[in-house]
Amino acid sequence: KKGSYDHFMQKEIHEQPHSLTTTMRGRLKDGGVLLGGLKEHLKTIRRCRRVVFIGCGTSYNAALAARTFVEELTGIPVTMEVASDLLDRQGPIYREDTAVFVSQSGETADTLLALDYALENGALCVGITNTVGSTLSRKTHCGVHINAGCEIGVASTKAYTSQIVAMAMMALAIGSDQISTQARRNAIISGLTSLPSCVSEVLKLDAEMKDLASSLIDSESLLVFGRGYNYATALEGALKVKEVALMHSEGMLAGEMKHGPLALVDEILPIIVIATRDACFSKQQSVIQQLLSRKGRLIVMCSKGDASAVCSNGSCRVIEVPGVADCLQPVINIIPLQLLAYHLTVLRGFDVDQPRNLAKSVTTQ
Ligand code: UD1
Ligand code: F6R
């Protein structure tokens, strides 16, 4: 089943041009978006007081990546909840809320308990899942199957990118009655259409990521700084590195750097800074300058052709990625980090598809 690949995680990373195509198949129609699972509920969702995203691990990170464009395209406030934390706090959920549950397996205990809780509180419950017939799919009022195909590697890769694309289509569908954002929606739809070919292009960084992994093999820790659309990329990249390569890694909000993390910077600790083109670009340029002036060991991810704009003196290692519509850039940017986590794991001699202490589906609380 792995075909020419050594591991399922590797196969699933490289499958993404295809899995994203199947996520979108039949759903981008006549310049608009058609989600069969949501169309009867769009009016109710448009009237809701807020959207609450709920998930765990990678699925939570995918929702975080979607948050900004859901707010932008729908005008509805969005809050984020890690499922276990919502339950610990018994946080407020109201009848006027749309609770969106994101889960690859559709069987994660924490997420399902949070679903029961939101149902009891009368919210409209929407599922975003890869598994037809899963408990999540059956218990939610409506939802979207991401159709990424079966994911076997314990580390979630192709489901993450398909979840983001499914939520982009959801945001486009909810916001489709707004005239003021029509041009923006058209640009995102054309970005979605070109996404699979951009993903094929970014996958060509495989050898470069293997080389980068070999330079990090003995590091004790790895930081990843992102902001805006790519804060989620930083969290998700770090999660991949810690869960499969068994290396300490933290994703951090770059805007918080000077409020503590800056103290960690030295010539040894590798730091990945995500600085692709979007509204936060100039802020990331100044973060890079501040890190370089403290002799930080930087690896900068930037848009193609921006190497000298992000690091003029050549003192950082640069990863250049193809550009897409800013809100879809997280789909591209996570891929080099997935490849890095994969190669780091193989080079460090750990089990890629079955990381220590982890299970694919966490069905206990
Ligand atoms: C559906 C069919 C698809 C067919 C297409 C043709 C299924 C599973 N999907 O896809 O095979 O090609 O019509 O028009 O038969 N749902 C939830 N919670 C979730 C996910 C989904 O309640 O977490 C519900 C949806 O609201 C919907 C149904 O499950 O009623 C199917 O969802 P989805 O597969 O996303 O719908 P379509 O894309 O229309
Ligand atoms: C990370 C990973 C986990 C899952 C989490 C939620 O690679 O796989 O963090 O994302 O356990 O699982 P689902 O999405 O099945 O609810």
In total, the number of strands is: 12
Rg, Å, rounded: 20 Å
**What sort of overall outline do the alpha carbons produce when their principal axes are compared?**
globular
In order across it, which strands form the biggest sheet?
4-3-5-6-7
Whole-Å distance between the termini?
Answer: 31 Å
Low-confidence stretches: none
Small molecules held by this entry = uridine-diphosphate-N-acetylglucosamine, fructose -6-phosphate
Give the helix tally.
14
Structural class: alpha/beta
Percent helix, as a range, is: 40-55%
Strand content: 15-25%
Give a short account of the largest sheet: 5 strands, parallel
State the order of secondary-structure elements, H for helix, E for strand.
HHEEHEHEHEHEHEHHHEHEEHEHEH
Catalytic activity: D-fructose 6-phosphate + L-glutamine = D-glucosamine 6-phosphate + L-glutamate
Keywords: Aminotransferase, Glutamine amidotransferase, Repeat, Transferase
Domain SIS: 41-181, 212-355
GO molecular function, one term: glutamine-fructose-6-phosphate transaminase (isomerizing) activity
Structure description:
The chain has 365 residues and is of the alpha/beta class. It is 45% helix and 17% strand. The chain is built from 14 helices and twelve strands. The protein has helices at 8-14, 16-24, 42-46, 57-74, 83-89, 109-120, 135-139, 158-174, 182-202, 206-216, 231-245, 281-293, 307-310, 329-348; strands spanning 28-29, 32-33, 50-55, 78-82, 97-103, 124-129, 142-145, 221-226, 248-253, 270-275, 297-303, 317-321. A five-stranded parallel beta sheet has the order 4-3-5-6-7, with helices on both faces. Strands 9-8-10-11-12 form a five-stranded parallel beta sheet, sandwiched between helices. A hairpin with a 2-residue loop joins β1 and β2. α4 packs antiparallel against α11 (231-245). The protein is globular and about 55 Å long. It starts with 7 loop residues before the first helix and ends in a 17-residue tail after the last helix. The model has no long low-confidence stretch (mean pLDDT 96). Fructose -6-phosphate binds at residues 56-59, 103-105, 108, 111, 155-156, 239, 243, 361-362.
